[in-house]
Amino acid sequence: MSQKIIICSGDPRSINSEIIYKCWKKLNNSIRKKLYIISNYDLIKKQFKILNYKINLTKIDNINQITKTNKLKIININLKFKDPFKIPINLSSEYVLESLDRAHKYALRKDVLGIINCPINKNLLKKDNFGVTEYLAAKNKIKKNSEVMLIRNKSFSVSPLTTHADIKRVSKNLSAKIIIDKIKTIHYWYKKSFNIKPKIGVTGLNPHNAELRKNSEEVKIIIPAIKKLKKLNIRVKGPLVTDTLFINDYKKFDVIVGMYHDQVLAPFKSLYKFDAINVTLGLRYLRLSPDHGTSENLIGKKKAKETSLMRCIEFVNTLKK
User: Fold this and answer.
1) Which of 167, 180, 190, 215 is a plausible cystine mate for 198, CB 3.0–4.6 Å?
2) 157 strand-pairing partners
3) Domains and CATH numbers, the chain
């Protein structure tokens, strides 16, 4: 049974066709044979033409069509359009949701190593504070807050406990159980994937850990969770003070778990730029995405960096089922 890697081309109003092309040109034939792109054939073809990218494509209806061709395989999703880079929002939304649903369906197969979705504007998912992480968690019918967003570089990772929640909602969304469950998921994923017990640092929520006041989230929620995790023989330390953590101390850990999105992603991206991948843990399959957005301001300029998508492909290709 040949192994397959699924790439969902994502938001049509984006740099996604550019980064797919740039990766394809760098990949060897053995990896190219594994790749299947979920997209609209005519859309990709016309976007490549506008960008003056010359590449051989082949249109297929589903992943069951066996082809040994070295052409870029496009699993066709219907989409009507006039301007290939200016698709109306309602049509883009329908297209993206159908693409994700198809990717989810394929990901459950034994011959699929994992799925990679290229960047998507979250507004296309039609729910507030709802990203692809949450969408696929719902498709997997897993318990709320069971999914984990992990942003990974080869040497270091970060994970926000609350993903796309507004700041005013972060404290309300925290609990000792959420901290424990998500850190256990990270711990076991590292053991399974890399055969190591990761060193995990946990941040506080408030500036200077709220000086550890009795009514603070640090004292009421975070510290009790850390104590329980230590009893499970998980290598965890905290709560760590975030304003100095990313100067040097982060190097002592394999993973830093933060309380909210920007608390850990902002410093991580300052350190590693595009050399990272976004991994969703807790699903029934491996899902990754590049660690950047749709970059609509770069469409047609040929300045987009393909590094993160390339890292996603390389990581999936190292795995076996």
Assistant:
1) 190
2) 152, 255
3) 1-142+283-321 (3.40.718.10), 145-277 (3.40.718.10)
pLDDT confidence tier of residue 51, bands split at 50, 70 and 90? very high
Token look-up 């023989």 returns 233
Q: Which residue has the higher pLDDT, 64 or 49?
A: 49
What is each CA distance from 174 to 37, 177, 218, 281, 303, in whole angstroms?
A: 37, 8, 11, 19, 39
Residues 99/105/108/111 CA torsion (nearest 10 deg): -70
pTM (2 d.p.): 0.89
* CA atoms of 154 and 96, how far apart (whole Å): 29
Q: At what angle do helices 307-317 and 16-26 cross, to 10 degrees?
A: 50
296: helix, strand or coil = helix
Do residues 24 and 7 make contact, with C-beta atoms less than 8 angstroms apart? no
> Band of the pLDDT at 183, cuts 50, 70, 90?
very high
**Rounded to the nearest 10 degrees, how much is the dihedral formed by the CA atoms of 314, 260, 135, 271?**
-20
**Which residues lie below 8 Å from residue 21, measured CB to CB, with a gap of 6+?**
48, 51, 53, 55
Tell me how many helices (H) and strands (E) the chain has. Answer: 12, 12
Q: In one letter, which amino acid is 252?
A: K
Per-residue confidence band for 164, with pLDDT thresholds at 50, 70 and 90: confident
Sign of the CA dihedral running 144, 145, 146, 151: positive
- Phi, psi of 238, deg, nearest 5: 160, -175
- Phi/psi class of residue 225: alpha, beta or left (left: φ > 0; alpha: ψ in -120 to 50)? alpha
Q: What tens digit of pLDDT does each residue of 268-317 get?
A: 999 998 889 999 999 999 999 998 899 999 988 999 999 999 999 999 99
Provide the pLDDT for residue 130. 76
Q: Give the pLDDT confidence score for residue 321 in this predicted structure.
A: 54
Whether 21 and 37 have beta carbons less than 8 Å apart is answered as no
